[in-house]
From TrEMBL:
Function: Catalyzes the reversible reaction in which hydroxymethyl group from 5,10-methylenetetrahydrofolate is transferred onto alpha-ketoisovalerate to form ketopantoate.
Keywords attached to this entry: Cytoplasm, Magnesium, Metal-binding, Methyltransferase, Pantothenate biosynthesis, Transferase
EC number(s) recorded for this UniProt protein: 2.1.2.11
InterPro entries: Pantoate_hydroxy_MeTrfase (IPR003700), Pyrv/PenolPyrv_kinase-like_dom (IPR015813), Pyrv_kinase-like_dom_sf (IPR040442)
Enzyme category, top tier: transferase
Pathway assignment: Cofactor biosynthesis; (R)-pantothenate biosynthesis; (R)-pantoate from 3-methyl-2-oxobutanoate: step 1/2
UniProt catalytic activity: (6R)-5,10-methylene-5,6,7,8-tetrahydrofolate + 3-methyl-2-oxobutanoate + H2O = 2-dehydropantoate + (6S)-5,6,7,8-tetrahydrofolate
Recorded family membership: Belongs to the PanB family.
Gene Ontology cellular-component annotations: cytoplasm
Binding residue positions for 3-methyl-2-oxobutanoate: 89-90, 128, 157
Organism: Actinomyces ruminicola
Identification of the protein by name: 3-methyl-2-oxobutanoate hydroxymethyltransferase
Domain of life, per lineage: Bacteria
Length: 309
């Protein structure tokens, strides 16, 4: 949430440390009006809970979600005021070097979820159920979801619509908040026939709407919409009482999600729906080059980084 000015990573100066003397008058005015703007109710909560999600939708406050796969990154994204951290099965292609999300195991998701949960003080932690760990039915899904909840997940996410409704209901009844995922569902890429937009055309649009309503009726606390035409995503958003979180689904959704490495410019691969908000890959490359050069020319370590006798 952009209005969150209260949380800063440890060691980073707060905005109030800037003095008027070194700031242009226009910037002072802008900073003052930003400080005067009412903070969103959600940005003030100590720990985001699932009941806050529908509250944010009702108040028209946009929800933010980023993926995270480890503690060091989760700590930074959490401190920046991200509402939800998704331990995505994109772990497979992003962090583990796999070609897709298909090979990701529940054991791998457990390790990543434990790490992210250990670092998330405010953000709601949502963990993906990986391919093959829930589709057989509610009992399989409960056993898998319980493993993720035991290591600190606050909710689980699973892909699919009406065929998943019974599973969503059982998990929900068992006290496990479930986030749905509709549109382009990567775990079904072999059936969908490629990485393509879903919900184009009247029949596909109606099917998507029926899936979203079924998930909400079954107790889902939010629904991710991936690569769905913006007008279709807006219609679904208006039709369901729970927040929609879009990725390639336009600005009409109640929130947005991106893979953090895409968002931060950690890699070169950027599908159309990604905006790069940083150049972290380039910054890391530069830091490693500077380190290598300093070791090679003998300037690192210096006296300050060495111990006296
Ligand atoms: N790094 C990363 N970012 C993601 O957004 C992401 C993952 N990994 N892994 C899991 C899923 C898979 N996703 C994908 C995978 C491929 C495309 C893709 O190839 N998009 C192209 C072509 C789309 C088209 O056919 O028009 C694009 O340019 O958007 C998009 C999303 C989204 N998710
Ligand atoms: C792209 C998001 C929604 C996801 O499911 C993942 O990162 O695994
Ligand atoms: Mg996923």
């Amino acid at each position: 949430m952009s209005t969150s000015a209260s949380s800063h990573p440890v060691g980073e100066p707060s905005a109030t440390a800037d003095t008027a003397a070194d700031t242009a008058a226009g910037a002072v005015a802008a900073a003052a009006s930003a400080a005067d703007a009412p903070a969103s109710q959600l940005s003030q909560v100590k720990k985001v809970r699932v009941h806050h999600l529908v509250g944010a939708k009702e108040r028209g406050e946009k929800l933010t979600m980023l993926t995270a796969y480890d503690a060091v990154t989760a700590r930074i994204l959490d401190a920046a005021g991200t509402d939800m951290l998704l331990v995505g099965d994109s772990l497979g292609n992003v962090m583990l070097g796999y070609d897709s999300t298909m090979p990701v195991t529940l054991d791998e998701m457990v390790v990543a979820t434990r790490s992210v949960a250990s670092a998330a003080t405010r953000a709601l932690v949502v963990a993906d159920l990986p391919f093959g760990t829930y589709e057989a039915g509610p009992e399989q899904a409960l056993a898998s979801a319980a493993r993720l909840m035991r290591v600190g997940a606050n909710a689980v996410k699973l892909e699919g619509g009406r065929p998943r409704a019974q599973t969503v209901k059982l998990l929900s009844d068992a006290g496990i908040p479930v986030v749905g995922h509709l549109g382009f569902t990567p775990q079904s890429v072999n059936k969908l026939g490629g990485f393509r937009v879903q919900g184009r055309g009247e029949d596909a649009q109606e099917a998507l709407l029926a899936d979203a309503v079924a998930l909400a009726d079954a107790g889902a606390v939010a629904i991710v919409l991936e690569m769905v035409p913006a007008p279709v995503a807006s219609r679904i958003t208006q039709a369901v009482p729970v927040p929609t979180i879009g990725i390639g689904a336009g600005a009409g959704c109640d929130g947005q999600v991106l893979v953090w490495t895409d968002m931060a410019g950690m890699t070169d691969w950027t599908p159309r729906f990604v905006r790069r908000f940083g150049q972290v890959g380039q910054a890391l490359h530069q830091a490693a080059q500077d380190y290598n050069a300093a070791v090679q020319d003998g300037s690192f370590p210096g006296p300050a980084e060495s111990f006296e006798a």
